[in-house]
Amino acid sequence: MKKATRIVTLLLIFNAISILGQENLIKNGDFEKIKSNGKPENWYIDWSLYHNLDDNNPHNGQYSLKLYTNGGSIKPYGEVYNKNIAVCSSCEYKLSYWYRGNVKRYGTPVSTLLTTLYFFKDNQQVSKEEKRDEMVTPTSEWKKKEIIFTVPDGVTSLNFFMYLAYIDNGLVWIDDVELVLVKKVKNIELSKPTGIKVRTYQREALITWEKNNDASIKWEIIVDHKPAVVVADNSYLVTGLNPESSHAIKIRTIKGEEKSEYVDLKFITNAMMESKNSSNRIPHLRTIPKDGQLKQRFLELYYNDLANADAKITYSLDGVELKPVNNKITFPENKKYHLSIVVEESPELIWNLEYQIEIK
Questions:
Q1: Is residue 210 packed enough to be buried (19+ CB in 10 Å), middle (13-18) or exposed (0-12)?
Q2: Which residues are 101's β-sheet partners?
């Protein structure tokens, strides 16, 4: 008994893998899994298309899908019910199935099983391919049909319909449907970031570059051999720097597992306007315009002429002390505010800053 169980298990494993050694992306492509209502699992079949699971002469296993050609389509579900099948962009796939039947019009065999591929990006259909040249003419003997195709660039999932036209008294059997990855087609090499600009401040540097319309594109940035940072926007603010300090940047484009070559840049932060020990030095926010008017309801807290990055800084808004969140003050509404700041670099170096701010 143990030996027989082991043989069955090996057969099941073999059926889950295609002859090319690749995983079959079609769940229940052999129609062996059956729902409580007698229908095959993981398959959608039009209500107009009469069908049943037939145990008479299947190609493999116990059942094949028997279809009456009274007009309609079938399609598989993906890993999740009513979802598409995840695929890799620009890769080559093979869709195959075994078929037999008797489909005649006025005594002459006719072609049927029109396969149409639908391609999606983030669950939005972007294109389709109707494989009219790949239709088959069933006979009483099992035959195999193979359709090789390449997934368009940018596509993340697909599905397909197999359509049978209305033909009186026609019958078609289908079995062992497979969708397997044949090979990964080399993608077009990703372009390096272009139009890179660096705007330097005393303790920060703003890096910007040209935006890409592909929403799946991101950028990886490395500053001074620190751990890489990945961003989705076409800008990045480097913080925590010192005045008049040299830094190196590496930035590249990434898309999934693909990566472009790095672009290498160097920059030097700005010098303080007054020397550290100058009596004229006053630390101040560089992010407040001279007229005190802000177009947004938040204020980022970046300073000029701050000699000690670890200075103790406290904030009050209209006389109420507040604590910034993520180095930012958020204003509750559009109006005028009085912002008071105390900067304490040491017990001997304390500044009281007063700002009149208006949110437009």
A1: exposed
A2: 172
Provide φ and ψ at 220, rounded to 5°.
Answer: -110, 130
- Give tens-digit pLDDT for 244-292: 999 999 999 998 888 999 999 999 999 999 999 999 999 999 999 999 9
Q: List pLDDT tens digits, range 326-342.
A: 999 999 999 999 999 99
Beta bridge pairs of residue 197? 208
Asked if 108 and 55 count as a contact pair (C-beta separation under 8 A), the reply is: no
Running DSSP on this structure, what letter comes out for residue 40? B
Tokens of 237: 């603010």
Residues 6+ apart with CB under 8 A from 237: 204, 205, 206, 207
> CA 24 to CA 95: how far, in whole Å?
10
Whether 243 and 202 have beta carbons less than 8 Å apart is answered as yes
Query: Letter for the amino acid at 183?
Result: K
Q: Which residues pair with residue 123 across a beta bridge?
A: none
The bridge status of strand 124-131 relative to strand 197-200 is unpaired
Both structure tokens of 272: 């303080």
- DSSP, collapsed to helix, strand or coil, labels residue 132 as helix
Query: Which residues make Cβ contacts (< 8 Å) with residue 229, sequence separation at least 6?
Result: 220, 221, 222, 223, 236
The contacts of residue 239 (CB under 8 Å, 6+ apart) are 203, 204, 302, 327
Handedness of CA 166, 168, 171, 172 (dihedral sign): negative
Whether pTM exceeds 0.90: no
Long-range contacts of 6-9 (CB under 8 A, 24+ apart): none
Per-residue burial over 12-25, b = 16 or more CB atoms within 10 Å of its CB, e = otherwise: eeeeeebeeebebb
Element (H, E) at 259: strand 258-259
